[in-house]
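Example record

The entry below shows one chain as it appears in the dataset: sequence first, then structure tokens.
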Amino acid sequence: QAQLVESGGGLVQAGGSLRLSCAASARTFSSYTMGWFRQAPGKEREFVSAIPWWSGSATYYADSVKGRFTISRDNAKNTVYLQMNSLKPEDTAVYYCAAGPRRDYWLATSYDSWGQGTQVTVSS
């Protein structure tokens, strides 16, 4: 399993941007699908975005963030990023980074390792 540490959360006004980073300790980082999930108060954890190990160019997004968020990974630095633009108050949540070897990237159960989460708050 990988150890994951997120950073980059914070408070931003609607329309603003943030970039989240997730540093992984795993030597086999390039063999993991990396995902971002989020959980708002009183709601279930939901899929946000993923970048798989099996494709150098594929990226996946929830419909709610498509066109606004961009996921990328740097295998040399064992780091995955989530660039979040045009943020909305409904994006407010704790964002979690996750790593796993399975192909069902949209399922939280496909991930073996999770970070501690980073708070993103978008004010209106």
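Notes for this example: The radius of gyration is 13 Å. The chain has no helices and eleven strands.
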